[in-house]
């Protein structure tokens, strides 16, 4: 079975083509600067050869056409025809309260996803455009939606409710939804597989640390809490997002700076976080370099980042009544040993003992805690695309829902 995985953003489309027989990626790439001047498609073949095509890629349908064209290209492709493609799996950011698992994308499902646009105005519209484009270009091909929010639908009301008037929750669905669910689900299952333990009996904290970042608490195979909330802006200090913030601060800044809702939304989503504090960059590597050169704001931002992750880890240990496994994943979690050091140092009293020597320069899959550590600390590179492909395969072969 061959499955194409699509991740459609507002100005980009990322794709991976899987051969599910051996679970390998036989082609991948992405369309960048969609609808803008200088748009292009970057295609990577299984042998590592990279091909770049420039063109006027004005919308998602044209972008998907480019992708299907390159996949079936005689010179650069890996499919003889589109008939070799068995199904398409889509990353869909928001499934609201209705979807607690991946599903076959029917007209009824798409109608419900469309209703979620109000609470995910930046993400769900491009997701839906990709689905619609594929529907028009390959009519009848099975398509599956894998929701970022679905994994966290096991949270109890005490974890997902906000302290707002209850009628507002009922009227607008204002509650904690959480995101990065596909990543948290993949790495927690993979960690248990590597450690040879039963996923359904473990207390796990998963730290997905990238430009967007979240921490999740998984107890006995179910997400019980997560740091991102109604939107992905809540929680940790991130690349450009503020993370947890006193509502009063938002109102105060809006009043003093005389800005409206749209400007405030841009401020706290695009100009805050590590970029806002440092004034340098949202890239941790550049911030680390600035710190090494003596930049005090860069040093402060890194301390803030580590401190916030550490606080969430402590709170989730309390919420679960203990911890068996702590996972580091995402671009920062997988590669930034200094961040792991800052987050996990001095936690021996909680049973977390980092092997400082092993952690240094560690950039692969494996355990980085000491043999004596009561909690296994493990680095697991995330693979959301494989998770989407696996869900798609299972749904297409066995029914319309996991």
UniProtKB/TrEMBL annotation:
Residues the record lists as binding ATP: 14, 208-212, 283-285, 331-335
Subunit comment: Homodimer.
Keywords assigned by UniProt, alphabetized: ATP-binding, Cytoplasm, Kinase, Magnesium, Metal-binding, Nucleotide-binding, Transferase
Molecular-function annotations in GO: acetate kinase activity; ATP binding; magnesium ion binding
Gene3D superfamilies hit by this protein: 3.30.420.40
Predominant cellular place of this UniProt entry's protein: cytoplasm
Active site: 148
HAMAP family: Acetate_kinase
UniProt EC number: 2.7.2.1
Pfam family of the protein (one): Acetate_kinase
Site (Transition state stabilizer): 180, 241
Binding site for substrate: 91
One Gene Ontology cellular component: cytoplasm
Cofactor(s) for this UniProt protein: Mg(2+); Mn(2+)
Family the UniProt entry places it in: Belongs to the acetokinase family.
GO BP annotations, alphabetical order: acetate metabolic process; acetyl-CoA biosynthetic process
Residues that, per the record, bind Mg(2+): 7, 384
Protein name listed in UniProt: Acetate kinase
